Amino acid sequence: GPGQAEMYAGLQELGVANGEDLKETLTNCTEPLKAIEQFQTENGVLLPSLQYALPFLDLHGTPRLEFHQSVFDELREKLLERVSAIALEGKVEERYKKLEDLLEKSFSLVKMPSIQPVVMCVMKHLPKVPEKKLKLVMADKDLYKACAVEVKRQIWQDNQALFGDEVSPLLKQYILEKENILFSNDISFLQNFFSPSPKTRRQGEVVQKLTQMIGKNVKLYDMVLQFLRTLFLRTRNVHYCTLRAELLMSLHDLEISEICTVDPCHKFTWCLDACIREKFVDNKRARELQGFLDGVKKGQEQVLGDLSMILCDPFAINTLALSTIRHLQDLVGQDTLPRESPDLLLLLRMLSLGQGAWDMIDSQVFKEPKMEAELITRFLPLLMSFVVDDHTFTVDQKLPSEEKGPIPYPSTIPEAFTKFLQENRIACEIGLYYILHITKQRNKNAFLRLLPALGKFFDLAFSDIFLHLLTGNLTLLGDEFALEEFCTSLFDGFFLTACSRKENVHRHVLRLLLHLHHKVAPAKLESLQKALEPTKQSGEAVKELYNQLTEKLELRKPSPAEVTETPSMELPLPTVPTPASR
């Protein structure tokens, strides 16, 4: 067929006979058998010793094709080994000259499946495949597919669009994987989005594939960073910032100095990576990070755009915010004001750079955002006063109360606190982490006090990362779900206010109820089931979760038969606490 002809097309150029030649010989001859014998002699394997061996194989019924094929396979293996050896021996220019000559001779056979591996192997070992050959490979889908990544890199570095087509599905997959973790049906305060260590995350499929595609090629690395910046600008999706840091650290793990030494964020990211591993910024690393920020020279401010993207990675923000809460607690114990703690000020400075990443890259104005003095002189002291209220209440509870009645837990929040939450993103971030902190401590009083303020947190309180962490921590307050007041504050006061306009909040509430429905008072559960019913506009995920919840609740309803019959003479069984049903 035409495929055959094309496959062997290159042989004639090399003066090697092919099927077409045989056909011609046979068409124009008088004695076909003699012609075939002559063709075999002329085009067979030229080894005198074979003259006697071949008839012997014929007697054993081994087809000549099989014999030639096995000789051919042997030779090809040897040739592949030889090519790889040439690539390593002798003077650089000489070895590449040899490989280039070999490529010239063999390229015309690149379509022959049996020879293709050899041609591909030669190209793989050439640091610069001739432009003309690259163009031919690029123009042919099958050849392009068969190419080694070393050759593809040479094609990609001058074809951003083609490289973009290869990278794009990987980036989509990456974002999807992150969202699947945030919306996972497993809810736990022990295992959450931030549990995997940086090293573990970098072993992920997408990071590994991108690392492999980039190799040591700075140009391709820059292209990927450009894609990530563009996508971050287009979508505001912070997971692109995580990938930016993971990619750099993955190349760092492989000690690819060609790239690490030219990325101005390398040392900063490396140091921050160690903090993320410990989920804390200690004093020594704080000094180091500060050194990098203070060391940004005039004329190099553009690096701030990159640093801000590294700091906007949710794993970085998580570490900075957790460290901030720990510092604030320490300050309460030491009777120190926030403005007197250089470590705390540095944490705020980095939080503010991370929070400002999108604006900085969008506006292309590379300077550190100004820190509001009031954040430090008024907001943080207010937060510290909550910690103090909490201590005081706990101590009061323990004092013998003769004449005084029980002291109520302070329930109001200063107006100024709420105002900060509405106007300052960093105040918001720290406030949210304080709420996560008290929930994790099972501190119901403090949680209920701050809950009314939650709706005031920009939309940060409705972000997937916060809701993922909050739902996990709320499992620690499971028993409180039996109380009307607690449920009303949490659901009516917070979750349900946003469900109708925010699909993701709807999903997180359903996740939480799937996990804790058996703890909720039946009357409340019924009204929640009504309130959470999907609308026509609801997406598939919401409908799916709602159906799962409905099924679970159906199973819980006792059947009428069970309610009426009580077994008469049975011995009472010892009561064994049942494990909470999932």
From TrEMBL:
Residues spanning the signal sequence: none
Keyword Signal: no
GO molecular function, one term: translation elongation factor activity
Region (Disordered): 556-582
A GO cellular component entry from the record: NELF complex
Keyword field contains Oxidoreductase: no
Name this protein carries in UniProt: Negative elongation factor B
